[in-house]
Amino acid sequence: MSTKNIAIYDTTLRDGAQAEGVSFSAVAKVQVAKRLDEFGIAYIEGGFAASNPKDMEFFRLIKKENLKNAKVAAFGSTRRANTPPEEDKGLAALLEADTPVCTIFGKSWLLHVIEVLQTTPEENLAMISDSVRFLKEHGKEVIYDAEHFYDGYKDDPEYAMAALKAAADAGADCLVLCETNGGALPHEVAEITKTVVQTFNVPVGVHTHNDGELGVANALAGVNAGAVHVQGTINGIGERVGNCNLSSVIPNLMLKMGMICLTKPENLKQLRALSLFVCEQANMRANTRQAFIGDSAFAHKAGMHVDGVRKVSHSFEHISPESVGNKRRILISELSGASNVFLKAIEMGLEIDRKSPEVREVLKQLEQMEKEGYEYESADASFQMLIKKVLKRHRSFFELESFSVTVEHKGAGPGCLSEAKVKLSVEGQSIEATGSGDGPVDALNHALRDALSTFYPTISDVVLVDYSVRILDPEEATAAKTRVLIESTDGDKTWGTVGVSENIIEASWEALVDGVEYKLFLEEEKTKK
Length: 529
Description:
The radius of gyration is 29 Å and the shape is elongated. The protein contains 17 helices and 16 strands. The relative contact order is 0.07. The protein has helices at about 25-40, 55-60, 90-95, 110-115, 120-135, 150-155, 155-170, 185-200, 215-225, 245-255, 270-280, 305-310, 340-345, 355-370, 380-390, 440-450, 505-529; strands at about 5-10, 45-50, 70-75, 100-105, 140-145, 175-180, 205-210, 230, 300, 330, 400-410, 415-425, 430-435, 465-470, 480-490, 495-500. By secondary structure, it is α/β, with parallel strands linked by helices.
C-alpha cells in the first residue's frame, strides 16, 4: 500500500465527554487541546456549540492559545426543519464559536428522517445543503458528518448517497461516514466506503463506534477502502461503550499500514504519555490492558515467553514498546522461570548470572511464598525486596519493636475512631509515634510515617493510591488468610506491595513496610549515582 496522509480528527472533548463518568472542565479541555496540538493531531473538536456554556467557554479560551498543528472545530447539526439557516440558533452558535472549522451532522437514514426528525426526505436534503452552504458563505471549512450512514446505506443506498450529494454539492470539504450505532462489520464498512470514495470527488472520512468491539477495525477498513480522514477519541472514551480508539488507530496506521498521521512521526513516542494525561484530566483510571499503551501491553509472565523476548524481542512483541512510549514489563508468578528472575534483577540494576544458584534460590523462595498466598504480579516492589533478601543485598532501614491499633466507637456518634502506636528502632534509637486515621490501616500508615519522618524526610512524598484485600480461603470465615495489596506513589514512580496473614492488620503492616522501604531504596540508589 502506498504511503498517504490520514487526517486525524480528535473528538475526545466532545464525543469522549459523553462517556459515562467523564467530565472535563473548560480549563481541562484547553489543556487537553494543547497536548493534542503538541502531539500533532490535525483537527480538535472542542464541543457542541449550541449545547452548554462550558463548551462556548472553551471556544473563547482556546482562541488565546497559539496552536501550531491543529485546527479547532465546533460541532453542531444541520438547521432545523422548516427553518431558514439565517434564523437557526444552532448555526448561529457555530458562528459565535468563531472556529476555522465547523462540523455538522445530518441524517442519512430514512428511519431517522421520518421517525426521529419527523420531516420529509426532501426537507432533510434541503436541511443538509442549506446548512453546508450557509457555513461556507461565512468562510468556514465544513466537515459533514453523515450520521448513521452505514445503516442508512444498508436500508436505502440511493437515499444515503443523495444525502452525501446534498452536502458535496453545497461545498462540504469532507464527507465523514458515521457508523453511529457501532454494529457494522469491517467488510461492510470497506465495501460501502469504497463505493462512496469512487462516487465523490471530495475527501471521505470515517467515524466509528465500538459497540461491536470493532471501532478500530472498522476505521482501518475504511482507510483501506480509501478514506483519508479518521475521527475518534484518545483511549476510545465516548457514548455507550466508546468511540474508535485513536490510541490504537494511530499506531496501527503508522506502524502497520505506513500512513502519515502526525506532523512529526517521532511524536508517536509520546502516545502513552498523552493517553495518561487525558485520563488524568478526565479523572479516570487508565486501562491497564489497553493495546499499545497499557501497562500490560508488553507485560510477559510465562517463562517461555520471557526467554523468547530476552533472545529476540519481536518473537513475542508485535512492535517495539518504546515506539509508542511504553516499556516491557516482566511479571513474576508461579509461571516464572529463570529468565523472569534474571530480567527482573537486571531491571532492578542488580548484576546476576542467569545460571547462578542464586536465581534458583529466588525461584524456590518465590514458589514457597506463592504457596503461602503471596502474589507478585501487582507487587513489583515486594518482589524486589524478596530478591534483595535472597541475594543478601537487603538492609533494613528500621526494625519494628511493636505496634498496636485501637478502634473505638462512642455512643450514637458517626463513625469509628482509629488510633495506632508504633515503636521502631532506627539507627540504634528507639522511636515511638502515634497516628490516627479513617481506619486502622490509615492510622498505622500515619504512625509509621511520623516515626520515620525525622530520619527519612522523603517519606512525606509517598501517598497510598489504592488498597485492596482478598480472602484466600473463604471457607475459614473470619479466620481466613487475607492478602493485602497496596499501591503507592511519590508522584514520579508508582509501585505495588503485598502482605499475607490471617490477621488483616498484620498483612497490611507488611505491605506498608515494603512500600516505605522501597521508597528508601530508591532514594539510596539516587545518592549513589
